[in-house]
Specification:
The protein has helices at about 5-25, 40-55, 60-70, 105-115, 120-130, 130-140, 145-175, 180-205, 205-215, 215-220, 225-235, 245-255, 260-290, 295-320, 325-344; strands at about 90, 100-105. The longest helix has about 35 residues, at about 260-290. The protein is an all-alpha fold. A two-stranded antiparallel sheet has the order 1-2. The radius of gyration is 21 Å and the shape is globular. It has one domain.
Length: about 350
């Protein structure tokens, strides 16, 4: 039998493989280039990987932090890129339907990069909660009723945000990906968190706390409760709101204790982030590779995996003892700092 560390490394490699595969299948054939046409330094790749890994599962919004990080790293240029021969590089080539085409830009590549390195955070959750994923697989095969109920609940909670996100994806990218919308979302999300923490503590009694501690995740969630969590997750389509935050808040209202709300958020995030990353990789993964090359994609994904694994463990430990309030105050403080830096 292989040592546990070797098995985990093999699993990590297998889970990161979709990053490479989906990036090879663009929405439009991309012009092959032998060298990246824009520089993403090793430092930039590590910074973006750390930001992604630290913020993906903490209720502070990874998308919001990555929008800000790409701006601070000067990766927002909208200038069309050209190859070594001076020829334009296209994300979507001109066509009868779109005569202007859509040229490759540094911002387009950076936006895609920050989505694709989510595969690192996805891999971290897959490794940490492997037993639950296997239980859901056994449930799908008819061999684990509890695992099947959990799988159904995850699927039900996934549908609302996935459906609306697919339909409104382009509108969201054009209208909501900005520092201003992130600042507002940070504040709105913070008040959601402070309210739900106050609500939970007011209704918490020793009997209810004991009942929650003994209940399993699958038994706690009815399909209706799972749908309610999914409805809350729609708010995460607003950059800066946080998928993790909306799922945990929805879990609180559904009757889950902080630990189980966080763990359900991780399981739901695995499905949601996988779908978003594959979709983004299919649309513009090859274009991003043209701009930055392969090496930094792998580095960012690995760094995101390591930091996400650490933060998942931290979040479960912290929420069990202290709740959400500290993250709410962090969000308010961050919003103030961003408003001062970018607007005053």
């Amino acid at each position: 039998m292989k040592p546990t560390g070797v098995r985990n490394l093999h699993l990590l490699a297998a889970l990161l493989l979709p990053t490479l595969l989906c990036a090879q299948t663009p929405a439009e054939p991309a012009r092959p280039v032998t060298q990246p046409v824009a520089e993403l330094s090793l430092t930039d790749a590590i910074i973006l990987g750390v930001v992604e890994g630290v913020t993906e599962y903490l209720p502070v919004s990874s998308t919001g932090h990555l929008i800000i990080a790409t701006r601070l790293l000067h990766l927002e240029s909208q200038t069309p890129l050209r190859d070594a021969n001076g020829q334009p590089l296209w994300y979507r080539k001109p066509s009868a339907r779109n005569p202007q085409g859509e040229p490759l830009t540094l911002k387009l590549a950076a936006d895609t990069y920050t989505v694709l390195i989510q595969f690192g955070a996805i891999a971290a959750v897959a490794l940490l909660y492997w037993s639950q994923f296997m239980a859901m697989l056994r449930g799908l095969l008819g061999r684990d009723p509890t695992g099947l109920r959990l799988l159904i609940n995850v699927f039900i909670a996934f549908i609302p945000a996935a459906g609306l996100g697919f339909l409104a994806h382009d509108w969201i990218e054009v209208n909501l990906f900005s520092t201003g919308t992130v600042i507002v979302a940070q504040v709105v999300g913070a008040f959601f968190m402070l309210y739900v923490e106050y609500w939970r503590r007011r209704r918490l009694t020793p009997d209810l706390e004991l009942k929650q501690a003994k209940a399993s995740l699958a038994a706690d969630l009815t399909p209706g409760a799972a749908a309610g969590i999914g409805a809350f997750q729609i708010l995460s389509l607003w950059p800066g709101m946080s998928r993790s935050m909306t799922t945990i808040v929805g879990g609180y209202f559904a009757g889950l204790d902080p630990r189980r709300a966080a763990e359900f958020s991780f399981l739901l995030g695995f499905v949601t982030l996988s779908a978003a990353s594959i979709y983004k990789g299919y649309k513009s993964g090859a274009a991003m590779i043209q701009v930055f090359g392969w090496t930094n994609v792998v580095i960012g994904g690995v760094v995101a995996a390591i930091t996400a694994a650490i933060c998942v463990r931290f979040l479960v430990h912290w929420l069990t003892r202290h709740g959400l309030a500290v993250f709410a105050w962090y969000r308010i403080g961050l919003a103030v700092v961003l408003a001062v830096v970018f607007y005053l």
